[in-house]
Amino acid sequence: MAEVTDLLVADAVRLGCTAADRFDAVRQAGEALVRIGAVEPAYADAMQEREQSLSSFVGEGFAIPHGTDAARALVRRGALAFLQFPEGVDWDGQDVRACVAIAASADEHVSVMSTLAQVLLDPDQAEELRTTTDPERVLELLAPAPEQDDETQQPQETL
Predict the structure, then answer these.
(1) Which of 13, 65, 156, 159 is most buried, by CB atoms within 10 Å?
(2) What's phi and psi for 147, nearest 5 deg?
(3) If you count DSSP H runs as helices and E runs as strands, how many of each does the chain have, helices first?
(4) 69-94 burial, b if ≥16 CB within 10 A, otherwise e?
(5) Which of 89, 37, 42 is nearest to 63 (CA)?
(6) How would residue 150 be classed by pLDDT, with cut points 50, 70 and 90?
(7) What is the Cα–Cα distance from 36 to 81, expressed in whole angstroms?
(8) How far apart are CA 14 and CA 31, in angstroms?
(9) Domain boundaries, the chain
């Protein structure tokens, strides 16, 4: 399964963006995926279609726009784009400060959703993603935490 570090590259991190509304933000997210060569241009249209039918808002000031199931054929390779909107975007009544656009042809996005959920559960990390001015910090925050090797874990004492 693909990890965030395999899917998100520095060229796809955009900080300090502004958007007129959620559809403008989704358009920019789609353009970012097209720009890095991850999707066909029509995938960006499918992202708009998906957003019109169901909001991609997930909470904590984040949205996760992506294409429709039918648009998976337009994905050249699994990828992410991260766009930050420091001034906020009205997302169907919710305030969104960052979005993680997903291009997935299979289940590449499952680990991404898990990693993002972990970040959003930590208010400090979520706030840092919403406000950082360092693209490298975005990559660090969204990289999955390394799992401990069994050898480095402390054995538990039994009574």
Answers:
(1) 65
(2) -85, 145
(3) 6, 5
(4) eebbebbeebbbbbbbbeeebebeeb
(5) 89
(6) very low
(7) 9
(8) 11
(9) 4-141
Per-residue pLDDT tens over the stretch 55-91: 999 999 999 999 998 999 999 999 999 999 999 999 9
Pick 107 or 92 by higher pLDDT: 92
109 is a catalytic site residue: no
Quote the CA–CA distance of 53 and 25 in Å, as a whole number.
16
CATH 3.40.930.10 fits 4-141, yes or no: yes
> Pick the catalytic residue: 14, 50, 66, 109?
66
> Residue 130 in contact with residue 84, Cβ under 8 Å?
yes
Alpha-carbon gap, residue 146 to 51, rounded angstroms: 33
CA distances from 92 to 37, 48, 72, 84, 139 (A): 29, 14, 25, 17, 28
Q: What is the pTM of this model?
A: 0.86
Whether the per-residue pLDDT at 26 is higher than 90: the answer is yes
